[in-house]
Amino acid sequence: MMKTVKLSLAVMAFSLTATACGDASGGVSPNKGRAYVVGIDISGSRTKTDLDESRKLLDDLIERLEPGDRLTLIEVYQGGRQPARQWSDSIRTPRNGELTGSDRRRLEDFKAVARIQTSILFDSVRAKEIQSTDIFGTLARAADYAEASRNRPTTLLLLSDMINETPAVNMTSRQDIPGESWIRHLAAAKRIPQLRGVCVVVAGADVSSARGAAIREFWDKYFEAAGTRVSTDNYRNMISDPAEVACPNISPN
């Protein structure tokens, strides 16, 4: 009963109406643990199967979290005035390096809260209200979180089909996908968020159609301008094993 009360209080404290900015039950020493920033796309261009696969991958990733890790969940940005939901917190590193019973309970409580926040973000009712998908705005916010990851190796997991749909850039038609000159223009104006040292993984992309290939080519060039890259193995339609959410060849700064 006591644990249920504590968990309910934790959920209230970590409501997605505001981002939790502190560490769960204490600070985290530099260079301890990993940081995961997860962009969650529930737009109408994604099927129920797509969303179910994305949610399972995230749930499995949460299960693998360890003391010292930080998890940030970001709803993919939309047009209009409705703000994107976000949640971020981290798990304390044991002071003596060994998990106590209290540390284990704290870890399990953290995972339980993270799963509840995941349920809130995968909101089928809210999905019907989404009119646009702003991946560029999401990447800018993700870069802010990566910068604040407190020296943890950082992975950006995008659970998305990577189809940006805003008045400025609408990728629903192949001919409307911007070219390399557009990316160079943004880079010259310093309007591309920097993700140097960040491991980027995409799960949910269209990897079979001509339009999907054109979108993939665009993002290859965009992420290169952002200071990172997405390998072929990390740009996929579906990832079933959370252990594959990684970039062996990318080292943090």
Give the helix proportion (percent range): 25-40%
Number of strands: 6
- Strand composition percent: 5-15%
Number of helices: 7
Amino- and carboxy-terminal Cα gap: 45 Å
Low-confidence stretches: 1-15, 17-31
The whole-angstrom Rg is 18 Å
Strand order of the largest sheet: 3-2-1-4-5-6
Structural class: alpha/beta
**What order do the SSEs take from the amino end to the carboxyl end, as H and E?**
HEHEEHHHEHEHE
Main β sheet profile: 6 strands, mixed
Mean pLDDT: 86
What this model shows, in words?
With 253 residues, the chain is an alpha/beta fold. The chain is 36% helix and 12% strand. It has 7 helices and 6 strands. Strands 3-2-1-4-5-6 form a 6-stranded mixed sheet, with helices on both faces. Residues 1-15 and 17-31 have low confidence and may be disordered.
What's the layout of helices and strands?
Layout: H1 2-13, E1 35-40, H2 48-63, E2 70-75, E3 86-90, H3 101-121, H4 124-127, H5 135-147, E4 154-159, H6 180-188, E5 199-203, H7 210-225, E6 235-236
Parallel strand pairs: 1-2, 1-4, 4-5, 5-6
Antiparallel strand pairs: 2-3
Helix pairs in contact: 2-3, 6-7
What are the key terms here?
253 residues, alpha/beta, six-stranded mixed β-sheet, 7 helices, 36% helix, globular, disordered N terminus
Quick summary:
The protein is α/β, with parallel strands linked by helices and 253 residues long.
